[in-house]
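Sample pair:
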Amino acid sequence: MNHFMDHADSYSNVGHTNKDLQNRLDSVRRNELQSSDANCIISYLTAKPVIDPEFFFEYTLDEDDRFGNLFSADSTSRSDYGYFGDVLACDAMYKTNVYQRPLVMLVSVNHHNQ
């Protein structure tokens, strides 16, 4: 904003407020993130098997090439399932995020409090 003010000689000559500028920058950043979020996630998950060879992930895309579903499981959770066989089902459709997609994070504790 100071840069604009230096060229316009005063804040009143700039034509917008500091909040207008903040809102515009926020909008630009959000648009950039929306197009790169999926690529970042896929890149991250694709690299995980290098560290954890038993890591598994699967995803689907909708008709607009956006994420439809995403599932991942590391070697520890896969091993735990083999020993204990517990399954947790969760319906998260009651609320969606800014992408109009539900976000579900599952955290569990085993019998060793791990």
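The chain has a mean pLDDT of 77.
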